Structure formats: C-alpha cells, structure tokens
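thought: user wants a sequence for this fold. calling inverse folding tool.
action: design(structure=
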C-alpha cells in the first residue's frame, strides 16, 4: 500500500508529541510537513528534531507540498471549523483532535463539508484502540458479567494549561465565554472539554446512547484558572445502564512551558480506570497503566515508561485504511456528535443545578 502523505497543522494540542513518534515510525505514512502560526510552537517543535519542515501557515505548507493527502488537526478547538473548510476545499482527509467543536451549528457544517467533499474525517479518540478496552469489550460480548447494569470511569490528569495555554481560554477551548453557573466566576472550557474519552467509551461498550445526565463542579484546585478543573457527571443510558464519570484535572503538575521530565509529580499524571458491573459479576480495569517508579527529588517527581503507543498505531492504521479503501471510520463526525451533545448537557446541568434529558435539550 502506498504511504499516505500526511502533515500536521498548528502543533498546539497536548497530543502532538505522541503523533511525532507515530507519524515517523508508521510505515503507512509519509510525514512531509507541519505548520504553526505560533512562533513558540515552532520553537518547541524544533526541539524534537523530526527532520520534517514546519511552515508558518497552512497556505504556505500546502503551496510547498501540494501532494499532501491528509492532515492531523493539532490546533485549538476554535480553529477546527476554518481548518476543515480549507481541507474540504482541497480534498484533504482529516484526523481531528478529540473535540471538533462544541457549537452544534458548526458541528453540522463540518458534517456537511466532509460529506460534500467526499473526504475521510476521523476523530482522535484513541481509547477505542487501547488493548485493555479491546479485552474489556470482548469480555462483555462473551457474557462474562451478564447484562450490564452500570459503568464507573475516571479520566483524570494534570492540567495542560501551563504548556498549552489555549486550553485555559474559554473562547479557544469551549468556543464561547459562557459562565458555568450564576454566581460562579468560572467559564466552560476546562477539564470536561479535555476528557471526552469515557463519554464516548460507554457508548462503544454498551451500544446505547445517553438519556439523562447530572453534573456538579467543585472549587478549583488551581485558583487562578478561569475554567473548571474538577467536575463529576452521572446519568443513565437509553438501555438503562447508569454511569458515574470523573473527568477532572485532579493531578497536580509542575508548570513547565515544555513538558519534560519533572512534569510528572506524584501521583502519576494520568489514570483511566473503568469498572463495569453486570448481573453476574464485575470487571475492574486500569486502561492506562504505565510502569512508574518514584524518584523522589526534586519536587516529589516520578518517572514513567509509557506503554500505550499501540493505541496511536491502531488509530492511524484505521485512518490509512479508510483513506485507501474508501471506508468510514468508526469514530466519525456523525458518531461523535452525540458524545458532544452529552458533554454540552453536562454543562447545562451545572448551570441549572438540575438533571438534563438529552431529547428535551435537543427540542429546547
């Protein structure tokens, strides 16, 4: 199979560094270019010495590399629509970061653009390719726990704001400056916006969609942030499965401008734990279990040996397969739309202090 000529756009998302390794190592890809309007993003990119040229704009990148077939949109959430318009105009396939947009009118325009252009648009939700999740789905399908009754999951991390400032800016992260609730000085756009994975995962594991959600926020651990860093969400699926999710930034971090050794402050920076309870048993799993040793100093640091790059390989392999064989990716815009609707409903529940029914929210 001929490698797909691929580029990266913007380089301001926290996942960009994971792509550097994957795009260089995957023989199905030919990584030809990158671009970033932010001079600091280009400076950080240069530290990784990829050997791939980086330009100051998409226009310059496409002009220098007209053979680009696909891009990774590694940009702030509020940039995605304009970038997708440009890609659709050029017939370039898209691997979008995990939040295309929270504005549902924009979301529908994205769907229209992709459909009209006949291009692949895959959403980066790597949990689908996680080996633990694959095993979990097999066990559920085999009837290991019987009928599923409930799912509890955490998607807790440090805050990326210090290295990627746009994630603390409501207009860039959520798309608009909307107060969390009356009397609260914070705005939508924090931890919830960073953690769609477990919301998508319950749909993947149960084959059902959201019916009702209730969410609350806690006081921030990081008082200077103007977006939420602690939030809890629970609710029910249409098939009766109940859930309790913690998608918080509840792990503290050293505030380094470039993530590097020292970013990891005890306890470990990221945990995605899932508990599935059924009529005949319970499965508890740690989906992100990197090898860790605590080295103590300075600043209570620890060292991590990551083991989860298989997910990025699987994600990219599917993207290439969809491009070359004209397939629709599992995590496409239409699939992911309902996850974004639920996350918006969580914010609405925080605002109102009441549970939100998804169908009522659509009609409202």
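)
observation: tool returned 364 residues.
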């Amino acid at each position: 199979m001929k490698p797909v000529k691929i580029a990266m756009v913007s380089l301001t998302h926290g996942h960009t560094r994971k792509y550097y390794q994957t795009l260089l190592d995957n023989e199905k890809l030919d990584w030809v270019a990158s671009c970033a309007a932010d001079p600091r993003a280009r400076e950080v990119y240069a530290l990784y010495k990829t050997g791939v040229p980086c330009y100051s704009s998409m226009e310059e990148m496409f002009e220098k590399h007209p053979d680009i077939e696909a891009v990774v949109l590694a940009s702030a959430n509020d940039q995605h629509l304009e970038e997708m318009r440009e890609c659709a105009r050029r017939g370039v396939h898209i691997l979008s970061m995990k939040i295309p947009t929270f504005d549902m009118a924009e979301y529908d325009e994205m769907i229209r653009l992709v459909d009209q252009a006949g291009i692949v648009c895959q959403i980066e939700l790597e949990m689908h390719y996680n080996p633990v999740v694959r095993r979990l789905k097999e066990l559920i399908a085999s009837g290991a726990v019987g009928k599923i009754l409930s799912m509890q999951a955490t998607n807790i991390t440090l805050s990326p704001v210090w290295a990627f400032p746009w994630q603390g800016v409501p207009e860039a992260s959520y798309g608009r400056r909307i107060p969390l609730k009356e009397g609260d000085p914070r705005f939508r756009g924090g931890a919830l916006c960073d953690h769609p994975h477990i919301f998508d995962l319950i749909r993947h594991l149960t084959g059902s969609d959201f019916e009702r959600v209730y969410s609350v926020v806690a006081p921030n651990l990081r008082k200077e942030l103007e977006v939420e860093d602690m939030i809890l969400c629970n609710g029910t699926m249409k098939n009766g499965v109940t859930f309790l999710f913690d998608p918080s930034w509840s792990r503290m971090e050293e505030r380094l401008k470039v993530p590097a050794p020292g970013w990891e402050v005890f306890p470990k920076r990221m945990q995605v734990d899932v508990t599935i309870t059924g009529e005949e048993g319970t499965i508890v799993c740690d989906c992100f279990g990197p090898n860790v040793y605590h080295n103590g100093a300075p600043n209570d640091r620890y060292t991590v040996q990551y083991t989860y790059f298989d997910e990025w390989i699987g994600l990219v392999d599917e993207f290439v397969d969809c491009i070359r064989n004209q397939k629709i990716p599992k995590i496409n815009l239409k699939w992911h739309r309902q996850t974004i609707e639920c996350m918006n409903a969580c914010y609405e529940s925080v605002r109102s202090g009441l549970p939100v029914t998804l169908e009522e929210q659509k009609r409202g």
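thought: summarizing for user.
answer: Here is the designed sequence. The chain has a mean pLDDT of 92.
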